[in-house]
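Why do we bother with holo predictions? Because pocket geometry can differ from the apo form. Keep that in mind while you read this record for hypoxanthine.
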Amino acid sequence: MSDASDSASADARLQAAVEAIRQKVDLVPEIALILGSGLGDLADAAEDAVHVEAADIPAYPTSTVEGHHGRLVFGQIEGTTVVFVQGRVHAYEGYDMRRLAFPVRLVHALGADKLLVTNSAGGIHRDFHPGTLMFITDHINFAFASPLAGSGYAPRSDVPGERSERHLPFYDTAWTERAQSVARSMGIATREGTYIWVQGPSYETKAEIRAFEKLGADAVGMSTVPEVIQAQHLGMSVLGVSTITNPAAGMGAESLDHDEVLEVGRQVREDLTELVRGIVREA
Ligand code: HPA
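The structure, written out:
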């Protein structure tokens, strides 16, 4: 049954989570940041941080992936109140889509109207080597799933005189341009491209990657898109950044020099951390 009573209980769960958090912290975040691999250090840099563990938040999905803490970290970065969503959950862990997007609904209900999402991704574009930072300008939903399914929402036809929801951008162009100029001013090289979401957890076949290249995808990964669909539906501004950690299947050397990859990882983490700080400052 996916009807009004379902969405009423979803609202009640959200409200219960908001109340549990409000008993611990009264900060109203401007920006929510969902951290992919490698950005954990940035949450450590939040000043006056208040941590709220996932286990203490009713209905909050807890991550099963090793090394992903499930918690919200409230604090200040560059004088802006932010909340970090640490320990994102993935569709391949078996969560249904509504549950997966719960952290986004929650940070929005707590006051955030901007969402900065980061992830790691495989490079499909032939110039996107490990270490490339890619602003996500568009996506392809190749998991064919949506967190809005079952929420009572249905596509509307255009109503004369109203702005059509169909054409609202998923990624905020103006924010992305500001972020690109922050990167330029810091001397950090960035690219932009289309991210394709696959459910995983197995990595793609070479044939899939060849097909994704033809579809126009530049990078492939197993996250982000459900969060962005939810955020866009709530009217949040979204900025997405992928770190290319490896060539997608069949796009690079069969085996990479591990030390080289680690070195790239370290360098890019530093750049990304500085970049995210700059983006928050200029948001
Ligand atoms: N494929 C899917 N997800 C990923 C990859 C990849 O090659 N690299 C990092 N996340």
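The mean pLDDT is 88.
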